[in-house]
Amino acid sequence: MRKKIAILGATGHIAKSLIYGFCLTDNYELLLFARSNDRLNEFLQRIHCNNRFSYRAFSEFEQEKYDVVINCIGIGDPGKLKNAGISIFRLTETYDNMILDYIEDQNDALYINFSSGAAYGTYFSIPADESSCAKIYINNLASTDYYGIAKLNAEAKHRSLNNLNIIDLRIFGYFSRFIDIGSQYLLSEAISCIQDGKVLETGPGNIIRDYVHPQDFMSLIEKCINKRSINDVFDVYSKKPVTKFEILDYFTRQYGLRYIVKENANISNATGTKDNYYSNNKKAEKLCYFPRFTSLDSIIDETKLILSNTI
Fold first, then answer.
1. CATH number of the domain bearing residue 90
2. Which of 94, 107, 139, 244 has the fewest Cβ atoms within 10 Å of its own Cβ atom?
3. Is the pLDDT of residue 272 over 70?
């Protein structure tokens, strides 16, 4: 039987990629929740799935019965996140509590929540691993701490409800053909410069990032869906992370990107400086998750589709 899945925040970047992945199989019935049905319908038409899935208002959420609820709601753009303030907490709390109320009543349902590597804190001089501790300067909180604290708070609530089926997935990096090129990410800014013939400015630091491939992420989601009676958290990772200059050098060779290194380049750090923002915590292997693609594979595959304007 097809599983019935609710996706909240269906017009977000990762949600769009998931919906497209679900669209490639007939195993699921999706009910999609978003603030703008017009934007959602436009997207579904773009991927030729407008007749496959249905969408609902958030006020109708508790009226249906779901096998799985996937929470994609959040502020993804670092440019918007930087000035979000209290809304980071309110947004997270409002929809998380709504879902928790639902699964406490329908306790056979599975709740998959998208957390973040930021739950570890804002400092990544070394990558996270299974022994890492969240580091927060509690007597000197900064706005860069808010996002991670909101995610950590949600995770703590979920672990306290150990009688319910809840999986938190800490996402460190995600890139797909559905990214908003206007967002303030390194990859979106680089692609925008390629399209517009502009020069990208970047700092001298050779940061390391991990972008899970959409196919690997879809595989992980399906492994979570097929896992019952679970309350746990897993870091999300690709087969291999990638350095900033590996990315820029690829774009230079393949697409003629021009970039300059400036000591005082204006780099968005909405959730803190993260030199090694990835995880060596491979606990997701317990779900039989073994990624097939590296971060650079994801960049190569998805950039090709973006610049050729195909799905």
1. 3.40.50.720
2. 139
3. no
